[in-house]
Amino acid sequence: MRAIDWKSSENGNPAEIVLLDQTLLPAEVTTLRIQTIDQLIDAIQRLAVRGAPALGVAGAMGVALAIQNSDEHIAHADIARLREARPTAVNLAWGVDRAMKDAARGLDAVIATALKIRDEDVAASQAMAVAGFELLAELLPQKAESGLTLMTICNTGSLAAVERGTALGVVEEAFRRGKLINVLACETRPLFQGARLTAWELSNMGAPHQTIVDSAANFIMSQGGIDAVLVGADRVTANGDAANKIGTFSLALGARFAGIPFIVVAPESTIDRDTATGSSIVIEDRGTDEVVVINGKRMSPVGTTAINPAFDVTPASLITAIVTERRIIRPSHGESPADALAQQNGAMGIAL
Predict the structure, then answer these.
(1) Which of 35, 79, 92, 351 has the highest count of CB atoms within 10 angstroms of its CB?
(2) Which helix (H) or strand (E) holds 34?
C-alpha cells in the first residue's frame, strides 16, 4: 500500500487523495479519504501523512483538490493555507508551487502534474537506494561485502514517500543484496516515528533490526559496531546544511566522534537553493502536549511546559555525503549542493 495516492473521480464521485493514516500505526492499518483542503491540512499537521517526499506529492495533489472543489478565489486562498501547513519541510511548498504552474491550463493539467510528481518520486527512491548502497560500498568496501550494521532516526521508508523512501530505501537495498547485518532504529521522541513506523517497515520487509532510545545512540556508536548513520532530510540548504527530525544533529556529532560516515539521503526537491544556510530555516515547534503526554497519560506536573522543536539542523561540515537521485554531494570534500549543481549543469552545457 502506498502512503499516498490519487483516486480519480468515478460514478459521479469527486476525485480524492488516499492516505495511510500513520498516526495509528503499527496497531491499525487505516486509510483516509481526503476530499477537502481542510482535511488535507489536518492530516499533514497531525502527521497522518509526513516525510518530505510524501509532503511534496500531497502539496501537488492538494492543489488539484482545491481547484476541483472551489472557484478561483477560494481555491487560491486554500492553496496558500496548504503551502504553509508545515514551515520547515520545503517539499510541501515545492509540490504546491510546481502544480500551480499549470493551474491556468485547468484541472486536468494540474492532476497530470501531481501524478507526474508521484511517479517521479517512485523513480527517485529507487535511484537513491542504489546510489546510497554503492556509496556505502565505496566508503566501507570490506563492511559492505561482509555485512553492514547501520543506524537511523525517524522514518525515511515508503511511509515517508510513495514507495521505498530515502535513507531506509538504502537500508532495504543492502538487505535485498544480502549485505545487512542489523539496523538500529532510534525511537525518535516525542512521537516515536522510529519505534512505531521504521520498526514496522523493517519488520514487514523481514530485515534484522532493533530499536534504541535516542539518548543511547551516541554511546553505542562510541563503542564501535555501527558502520554508518543514514538519515533523511526535510530541507537541505544551498551550502549543504540539512534540517531533519530532532535528534539528527546529535547523531552527526556522535558519528564524527566515532569516525563513521554520516550520510543524508534526500531527493533533489528537498534541496532549497534559495536558502543559503541552515540558520535561516524556520524550525517548527509543536508545543507542550506531545512531550508531556504519552498515550493519553500526562508524564509531567500540570503547568510544566516544554520546548518541542520538531527538527534540528546538521551543519554541512558534519555530513559525509548527501545522496540524491541525480548525484552524490560530498560536503566533507568541500562540495555544496549549489557547487555540485553548477558543475553538473556546466558539464551539460546548461547556462546558470
Answers:
(1) 92
(2) strand 31-34
Domains of the chain in sequence order: 4-120 (1.20.120.420), 131-347 (3.40.50.10470)
Please report, for residues 194, 211, 285, 302, the alpha-carbon distance to residue 299 in angstroms, rounded to integers and kept in the order given. Answer: 21, 22, 19, 9
Q: Which three cell numbers stand for residue 198?
A: 521504521
Contact present, 242 and 262 (Cβ < 8 Å): no
The answer to whether residue 234 is catalytic is yes
3-state DSSP assignment of residue 4? strand
The DSSP code sequence of 137-164 is HHHSHHHHHH-EEEEE-S--SGGGSSSS
In this predicted model, which residue has the larger pLDDT, 233 or 12?
Answer: 233
Closest CA to 83 of 73, 72, 71, 98: 98
pLDDT score of 246: 98
Give me the catalytic one of 102, 121, 214, 234: 234
What is the pLDDT averaged over residues 8-23? 92
What mean pLDDT comes out for the span 101-106?
A: 94
DSSP string spanning 175-230?
Answer: HHTT-EEEEEEE--TTTTHIIIIIHHHHHHHT--EEEE-GGGHHHHHHTS---EEE
